[in-house]
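I am writing to request your help with a piece of structural work I have in hand. I set the record out below, with my sincere thanks for your time.
___
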Amino acid sequence: MIREIKLLGKANDKVDYSVTITGADLSNRYYYESVPEGDRFFSGGNEFIITKTGVRYMGTGGHVCQYMFGVDLPLKDLLRKDVANRLVMFGAYYDKADSITFSNTTAGEESFDRIFLTGNAVSNFFFFVDTTLKAEIREVQRDVLRKLGKQVKRSEAVGVRDDSRFCREIFDALEDPKAFVFLFRLVNLHTEEYFATFNKMYAEHKQIPSRDADILSALADLHEIAPYQQERIKIDGMYKLTENKKVVDEYKDILIAVSETGEVSPSELAKLSRLRTLSLRLNIPNNLFDTLDELLLKDMQIIEVEEPDYIRETRAICEGFFLKTGDLRGHVVPEDLIKLLKAKQRSMTNRDPAFESLLLDTVRACDENARDTNDMTILEGMSQVLTYFDRYDSAATVINNLAFMERSSLNEDNIRSLAGNMDIFDKVKKGFFHELFIADLKENRYLTRYGRKKVDTLYRGLEKIRSGDTTYRELAATLNTVNAEERIYTTIHRYIKERFKSIYAELNSKEDQEIFIQDLNREVQAKGLTKGPVPHAIYEEI
């Protein structure tokens, strides 16, 4: 017995079609004919005609296509993670109560342009069934949807265009051994070529170089593919790339989860923000996320906490450690390290404990995750971040002590450690060490003249060490010299302030000032305030 018949045809130069007929026994049955309008397929009151410009249908069945950007996506389908395909039954529509209503009017027609614009841009299925159920057409349609709706909307055969498998799935779902299933697949050859070309280019570069963009543009012009259709195909191709799909699907999963509670917490909001940030690095268009937001976030209560931008960014990065997608979990790149270290810097400047509290919670969660899952990936990623924080604390403490503590000095080990940290931070970003530890410090209004001088001397010395123009020992000696000058300056400055209280004459002339300095020099040495003559430059600074 013949159980399957396959036919291949061409509607026009742009559209090919294939027909698969499945049943328990197809022997001695005739199901198609050529008519002036095109190719006609029929059985048991059902009819499907493929013309040069589109299709006409009558009877049972419907339209099936794999979801892609631009295809109407009901919220119910979006909330079901395993639904991959759109199913539209002939003669069915949603009423005001959002329930499906069936009518006896199932006849209709659609142009190819509309089919590939509102459905899948490349491949679309139509089908009708000839069953043994004797009832009004609307009741037959209701019964067909009840039996095969779940299977059709989840079938993987649609995406891979396995006509035989898909047709057999429909036949088996009907549970009617005497039924016949007619399955029609329409393929747009022009968009198929464009889709395949784009996918090959994007998979290779993860973006479209200008040369490839010119090729795609020429192909679109040749086949007269509309800009909107080009955009749909590109977005679908980007989404279906495995690493991109993981990001978008996790974003979708978070939205589905929060839709059950009706509100979005700061933690979930941070995860969504983090996924959007990662998507930019993968060149995933925001359109994919915007569409999901419009469908799922529009009626949500978003719980926002008033917090500085640097805390919000830190929260997003920290939440990224707990994403489900393995390639993204704990994924920290130099851009993230820069944000985290700048956030730590600002939190210290503002004396804001929120940063350390957030960091502590994240570390605790990483520990718990490692313990519960026996997976050290997240903890290892967090440990790398903490290593940078430890380096930051070490460098900041040494430099701040040098800048603000009068008698603070650095030995060779201190300088060697700072030089190593400088190399580490500058690998994250050129000049990042100066940005973190020197630039803002020099703007501190409490920094003294000698504090600024010591900081400048230190940084210039570290640069000379890097270039091989000085040594750790020489820099330590130079800083000790500046320290000695600072101590003398402080001592003399304090003495001169007291001395001025007993002077009533104005020191207007250069000669008077020189006489006064000589007298002071003898006095401070006589009193034992200094061990030798005070450098003239110190008096000039005072």
Summary: The chain has four domains: 4-188, 193-242, 243-367, 393-541. The radius of gyration is 38 Å. The mean pLDDT is 85. The longest strand covers residues 15-23.
